[in-house]
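Reposting from the mailing list since nobody answered there.

I have sequence plus structure tokens for a pair of proteins and want to know whether others read the tokens the same way I do. The first protein:
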Amino acid sequence: MKKLFILIFSFATVALQAQDFNKNLASARTAYSAGNLEDARFAMQQMMNDIDLLVGKEILNLLPTKMDALSANTKEDNVTANTGLAGVLIHRTYGTGEKTAQIDIMGNSPLVASINAILSIPFIGNSSDGTQKVIKVQGYKGVMQKSVNTETNKENFTVQVPLNSTLLTLTINDSNEADAQRLAGTIPVTEIAKLVQ
């Protein structure tokens, strides 16, 4: 019964978003035909938001429900669309207590250029103190950064992987480098890259 409810809810959500998309498309055509370019542009931006939200929800469905022993907190899942600086923002957390992880995916991220610069110059990407290094996640280059909590002395890791203009960020608290690399490998980066292109 629960699966049936989720399936019906999913279809209803998609149907409502399709109606919004079609409504915005009709508004854009009407405004454009009338020579009202400002309203046509606004309606088209709303259509792009609708598409970004649908893509974000597809990506959430691709993300793993568990990362090792860390279960996804799906009630905290969040997808937002913005036509300003960023496109779609996707957020999922894993685990509770001290050992947690989170995935954040930002479309049109302004940080992609700086990450790509780090990846293109190897001596910058790999720091001499071991706090930053270039890694590969399912064939995609990324940057792994380590920080140490000064109060608990526990290591935290951030893995950032640019996918065209989208930035995938995995943050893991209370971990080690091998675990961070393994958890990053559980993310379906190739499938996500196809959706954000």
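The second protein, same order (residues first, tokens after):
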Amino acid sequence: MTKPRIGIYGFTSCAGDQLAILNCEDELLELASLVDIVSFRMASSKNDDTNLDIAFIEGSISNEEQVEELKEIRKNCKLLVAIGTCATYGGVQAMRNEVERGEMIKKVYGPQEGRWKTSLPALPLSAYVQVDYAIPGCPIEKWQFLQAVASLLHGDLPSLVNYPVCTECKIQENVCMLVQKGELCLGPVTQAGCYARCPSHNRPCHGCRGPIETPNVTSELNILLEKGFTYEDIKNQMRNFAAPSEAIEELFSKERNNAAKNKH
């Protein structure tokens, strides 16, 4: 029986998700017996990008060359899986998409700015191609990648948890960083799957896994405002990893409208 052909790719990101795959270590040998990893540029210099069954892609898209490469990968694969928060939501590089690109290039590259042909606002893969499945995380948990491969090999789409980090905090019996410690914690609106790693180490959740499917961002906003945080503090924290998120943008839009009404 022919083994499924898999490609693993990375665009604008820190490559942490590809490293998480490499860190599967013991499981990699078993994985190699089940699938044929024909393209993995971080791990191999010999790659074949044609006739893929599954393409796993990390990173946001931030220039025209990446758009074309992404579309080519999409054309050559049956299933496309976004891995990591950058590929799923845009990541930290999407926080300042409103800044004019020419101004940003000049600020970053100075006299070398002419060498850079294109620069686009950082956006998730879904802004340009159909994404069949997405695994959020910064980086992803290796068990999620292995679970996804196992499900896809059986012809099923993997199921993601759809509850907030707060649920995992309760399981871990953590003290609530938001209510009891008054920290700017995004646990109530962030997708679980990390076993509440940050709160378990006495750090508030920064939302690196992106928002749950139906986040109650309005309640989160109101609680944080009651705790004394400014609107700008909250907005910046929520935009850290999921700047293009529809739920967050909807919240900002409502807040702007409310502010406009209060002026009249």
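Reply #1 (J.P.):
I read it the same way you do. The first helix runs from residue 16 to 22.
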